[in-house]
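User: Second chain of the day. Same drill as before.
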Amino acid sequence: MTSFATFGNELYTGKRSYNFVSKRKIWFTIAAVAVIVSILIPIVRGGFNLGIDFRGGSEFTVSDVKDTNSGIGERAVTEIVPGAVPRVANIAGNTMRIQTDKLSDDETLKVKAALITDYGVQEDHVTSTFIGPTWGADVTRQALLGLVAFVLLATLLMAFYFRTWRMSVAAIVGLLVVMITTAGLYAASDFEVTPSAIIGFLTILSYSLYDTVVVFDKIRENTADVERSTRRTFAEEVNLAVNQTLVRSINTMMVAVLPVASVLFIGAYLLGAGTLRDLSLALFIGIIVSTFSTIFIAAPMYAWLRMREPVLVKQARRVSQRRAAEKATDDAPGGTAEVSV
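Assistant: Same format as last time:
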């Protein structure tokens, strides 16, 4: 614990420094590759694995089953509706969920009877519901509208709060990386995209902005009078701010991701809670990606957008001249030099 506290103190004072900003081309390249791969994953797989709430269809829930073999539910459906491709899952304990394309009323009654017989349960242990394509389309439209509204409001609020469009752009670029990468990894997992997953997805966007705002606040504090300073360049001040908030970012991520991981691996996989699995996977991926996006994308992007400004170019030149003069006169100040990693 003491060594970790010392590590954090060295980062804050600048005694130890990791060059996030100066290596921005590497991070941007990695991010670009991750985004491209994340876009290609659902294309190659033929799209996302949409849940019944989005694609529509018939759903049966069978509770108190003695055998959770998915083959039983598949046979019960295909015997009544040849050619059907049912999706059978054990969603919680002794409860099975069977989803199919739209069935007629007669087919629904026959499938329900087959499930009662094959699973050996009482009639009141089998329920059926139908979700029409119109309702699924409404859910999709509302989810997209919510996403667009969130991004637009976030852009305006960031620009208003920080009083510079460059911070807003950098934050949104980082947010887009989180959105696309999380969606790609979710598609790779082949988990169903359900309303719960969308809720988790929107939640991690809020987390991403929260983490970015905290880091950007420190950047704004460090660069408030940078035009008149000759101690560090603008890019170096941004890098210092990222290092100063690094421990906080890591701690926040760990505090957030550990309970989510517990829900994902214990609640979903061991207890079979399907809804928890969809929600927690989106959160688990998004929280981790958000932290890395703020450190490696958003902050370096902001530095890159501003470091070519004439005022900051002149300031960087003065910093170089001051350092050259100190080196020439061998009049470097006492103290411990910064350790660059």
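Confidence is low (pLDDT under 50) at residues 336-341.

User: Great, on to the next one.
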